[in-house]
Amino acid sequence: MAVLAAAQLLDELMGRHRNTNPNDKVKKPNWEDPEYCKYYMVKFCPHDLFVNTKADLGVCPKVHDDEVKNLFEKTEMSYKKAQYVEEFLRFCRHMINEVERKIQKGKQRLELMNSKPEGPPMTQAQTEKNQEQVSLLSDKIAALMQEAEEAGTRGDVEQAQGLMKLCDRLKEEKEQLLKQQENSHWSMTAELAAAQEKQMEVCPVCGAFLIVGDAQQRIDDHLSGKQHVGYFKLRQAYEEMNEAREKEQQEKERRRREERERERSARGGGLGSDRRDRERMERDRERDNDRGDRGRDRSERGDRSEREKDRERHRSSREEKSSRHEDRDRDRERDRDKERERDRDRKHRKERRSSHERSRRRSRDRH
């Protein structure tokens, strides 16, 4: 790890190609190369946030390059770039979940510390006596279990059942003694905390224990510490990127609605257009909901499951079939319009022929 850190430091000071000969052709940087850190290109690398803290993630094994990061930011959104963003969000969600569990455990510990103990604490002599009784009960239970097993082997079922019932009573007595000992321990802890007259609380950002009403200097030191700032930066980046993604989805939905309105206006509201629009809106809504669900699932569970892949394939197949049906409906509508036009032409020609025949008959009658 020390060698890797030294190599990264030299890369920052002298450049990536510090060992390249002057006559060698230098390869142009490409953000898709696996040697570059995906998290650093998207936003920042979490490994740099908790250096020399309890949450230290170690040195990042990938290369952090500002030039490659600029190339990544200038590139238009693509499938691979979207994958990088998803991996960054998934990693942030994982770390936030870990610290949330730590915060929950800390709160439970404080609640247990502040709860009123059952009875006064035991003295040293009482504690030793309690431990001796627990040890004797354990030996008796082990002996009775062995006797019950031997009785069962001999076929004496009644004796075995009686020994097991006696074992159950001894186990209950042992559990009561252990509970008294545990209550005494928490009583002493609570008395010690009350003697110190310091109430504790859990930091809602990083999960550290803080003293209520502590000096402002100590509070400022905690707020400016690496661990607190690191988790705050993680939470802020995750929330901002999620909000941006939701706004982008809403904008796409708005553009789709406008495009559907224009298509419906261009068709003139033909037969079946309203029904097809409603079906398309339902499909778009289901697709957006499925995409949102998959995004949340990936942020919580990790990689997408095979079941989701099958669902996406089936959905794309349904959309393709629906698109083919719509094309076929439009072709049929055009065919019907052409047929109606041909019928009108035939009718018009037939009327002209009838009129011509009547004129000829009237001319013959006059002669």
Characterization of this structure:
There is one protein chain. The protein is built from ten helices and two strands. The protein is mainly alpha-helical and 367 residues long. The chain has a domain at 1-115. Strands 1-2 form a two-stranded antiparallel ribbon. Helix 4 crosses helix 8, helix 5 (124-154) runs antiparallel to helix 6 and helix 9 (273-301) runs antiparallel to helix 10. The longest helix is centred in the last third of the chain and has 61 residues, at 306-366. The N and C termini lie far apart (120 Å). The model has no long low-confidence stretch (mean pLDDT 77).
Q: What's the count of strands? A: 2
The neighbouring-strand order within the major sheet is 1-2
Structural class: mainly alpha
Please state roughly what percent of the residues sit in beta strands, choosing from under 5%, 5-15%, 15-25%, 25-35%, 35-45% or over 45%.
under 5%
| Nearest-integer average pLDDT | 77
What Rg is obtained from the alpha carbons, in whole angstroms? 39 Å
Low-confidence runs: none
Distance separating the two termini: 120 Å
Number of helices: 10
- In helices, the fraction of residues equals over 70%
Main sheet summary:
2 strands, antiparallel
Helix-strand blueprint:
Layout: H1 2-14, H2 38-42, H3 66-74, H4 79-114, H5 124-154, H6 157-196, E1 200-202, E2 209-211, H7 216-223, H8 226-267, H9 273-301, H10 306-366
Antiparallel strand pairs: 1-2
Helix pairs in contact: 4-8, 4-9, 5-6, 8-9, 9-10
Family: Belongs to the Luc7 family.
Region (Disordered): 242-367
Biased composition (Basic residues): 345-367
